[in-house]
Amino acid sequence: MSESIVSADLVIEGDIKCEGDLSVDGKVMGNINCKNLIVNTGGFVQGDIQVVCLSSFGIISGNIQAKSVELKEVSNTKSNLQSAELEVSSGASISGTINIGRKAEPAE
After folding, report:
1. pTM of the full structure
2. Which residue in 38, 40, 52, 91 has a CA-CA distance of 20 to 30 Å to 32?
């Protein structure tokens, strides 16, 4: 499967659902449901996220449900987060409720 890209100059107001991977450099104001999601530096998501793997260098505001989450050094996350695995790099900012454990795995 290919990777879909929300480029830096693109703003999407609405939900995104895809079976493959998604990379966000721009802004998404809506829910995201995909396999793997990367929110790059400068990327912004305001909405609920349901994915297998999430890696963020950007800004996220919304509920997150994932099997694996990596919050990188420049990321800023405000979320109710449910995940089986969580990695938070030094310099990352996270606020909200965090629930880590097997029950948090989304249906694939």
Report:
1. 0.91
2. 91
